[in-house]
Every structure is written in structure tokens, then in C-alpha cells.
Amino acid sequence: QVQLVESGGGLVQAGDSLRLSCAASGRTFNSYAMGWFRQAPGKEREFVAVIRWSGGSLYYADSVKGRFTISRDNAKNTVYLQMNSLTPEDTAVYYCALRVTFATGLSAASVYDYWGQGTQVTVSS
């Protein structure tokens, strides 16, 4: 089994920064990719960013490109999402998700095998 635990959410003002963490435990060895998604009230869950464990290839949603940075620490089995220049439109519950084996279409939530419980990010104007 795999457990994913997010942390680092909170209430900030527009223009501020936050860093989210996602710690993975359990049978994560040689997993393929870790993604971040978010879901605002009344909206569907949307892709934010993804990073491959091996090689470190990464991709971002257009809405966060240039403001958010995804990174990983393989030794700690942890993935981070550094979020800068936050706006009220970034307010959502943020989830990390793990894909165990190779897959394409990593921006689709349905591709992922495991999910964390989510962490709330609220950005006030």
C-alpha cells in the first residue's frame, strides 16, 4: 500500500508564496510520477503539475506556469510544490497523486493510482 500526506496549506494574501509538501510512504519504490491537482468549490479537479521520479521531467498547467515549481527529493520520498505570486484564483484544495507505472496523459486525474487527503490553500485579495 501507498500513503500520501500533503502539508503546507494555509491562508495567505494575494502575492504571497506557499510551499506544499507531499510525503509518500509504503511501496513507492520505482514509482513513475507524482502529480499535483487542485479542486475549487463547485469546480472539477484540475491538473497543476507533474514530475517523473526518474529523470525529473516536469510539466505544468498553463495557469500556473512561471509561478509554481514542482520538485522532488527522492531520498525523502517527498514532492514539493512551490507556489509564488498567488492569486485568489489559486484558492482550492490541493492534492498530490502517485502514478506507479508508466503512463501517458499525466494531466488526467484518472491516470493516478493513489491520492492524498488534500490540503486547503486560501488566497485572500
Describe the model:
This protein has 125 residues and is an all-beta fold. Helices cover 0% and strands 51% of the residues. β7 (68-73) and β8 form a beta hairpin. The radius of gyration is 13 Å and the shape is globular. 32% of the residues are buried. The mean pLDDT is 94.
**Radius of gyration over C-alpha positions, nearest whole angstrom:** 13 Å
In N-to-C order, the SSE pattern is EEEEEEEEEEE
Main structural class: mainly beta
User: How big a fraction of the residues is strand?
Assistant: over 45%
Average pLDDT metric? 94
Which stretches are poorly predicted, pLDDT < 50 over at least 5 residues?
none
Assign a percent range to the helix content: under 10%
Count all strands and give the number: 11
Characterize the largest beta sheet: strand count, sense, and whether it forms a barrel: 7 strands, mixed
Shape: globular
Number of helices: 0
Could you give the distance between the termini?
40 Å
Brief summary of the model shown:
With about 120 residues, the chain is mainly beta. It contains no helices and 11 strands.
What's the topology here?
Blueprint: E1 2-7, E2 10-13, E3 18-26, E4 33-39, E5 46-52, E6 58-60, E7 68-73, E8 78-83, E9 92-99, E10 114-115, E11 119-124
Key traits:
7-stranded mixed sheet, 4-stranded antiparallel sheet
